[in-house]
Amino acid sequence: MNETRRDEARLSQEHLLGLEHYTAEDLELILQTATHFRAVLERPIKKVPTLRGITVVNLFFENSTRTRISFEMAEKRLSCDTVNFSAGSSSTQKGETLRDTAANIEAMKIDAVVMRHSCPGAPGFLARNLDSVILNAGDGAHEHPTQALLDMLSIRDRHPDFQGLRVTLCGDILHSRVALSNIYGLQRMGAVVGVCGPPTLIPRGIAELGVRVYHRIEEAIEESDVLNVLRIQLERHTAHHFPGLREYHERFGLTRARLEQHAPEGMTVMHPGPINRGVEISSDVADSEYSIILDQVTNGVAVRMAVLYLLLGAKTVEAS
Questions:
Q1: Distance between CA atoms of residues 9 and 72, nearest Å
Q2: Inter-residue contact 172 to 137 (CB < 8 Å)
Q3: What is the pLDDT of residues 232-263, one digit of tens each?
Q4: How far, in Å, are 1, 9, 50 from residue 4 at the CA level?
């Protein structure tokens, strides 16, 4: 991307804290930019000098594999200088506050922080207290904006028009940070969004967001074009929300038999990972022609390149 394009490509927000306040124009710009960077990833030489001289700190206070590696890969593809922060060996274990930790890192003259934290709102707290650009890589059960963006890019590959597209999120909606970002983003683009799961895993009042609520997986399949299956997050459960994993799979698991009996033509199945095979989704669906799960992983790098570029590209122009 040339300097002129970089100057024109601006988002309405200074940070990526969530999708709640992003406009349809913002989302469209991100998806179009991600499509450009996906083409870059297909080249023999996948690295571009777009953000040379920019320093990004990956500040992960929770375990992560796909998201952390995807962000790190995106940063390196854009020629950023990348620093990985390990919470387990940090001064936070000695009682240092989050604000002091981040302020000390920023004093080393960085440009951006990619943050994952167990507390909802933690990235917003940093954005209010630091001068660096903050990108939310997941905050508690609140939002996970780049996951929703890569989901949207993956959906668009199979369903080019979001207007009226029926997308249902199935599974552990209560503990999911993916669900809320998907709801905000997809609705902003004109999709009809639903959620499906046992009543104990559906947040109270979620219908007020304008989503359809299903308590039968068969009904959700019949009335959807896309199913985004979410993991049962047992590590976040503080109560017994259903009798057991076997019973959950029998009532809500996405199986080939259920798809063949109830799915409309052209059904698409997604999963943000990691997958609990045989719980929320069967292996013969996860690996089937319905599935675009590995496409989501590929699109994750392109989307994260896009948001880094759009939020930080102006800094390279100012420095040149």
A1: 23
A2: no
A3: 975 555 556 676 889 999 999 999 999 999 99
A4: 8, 9, 13
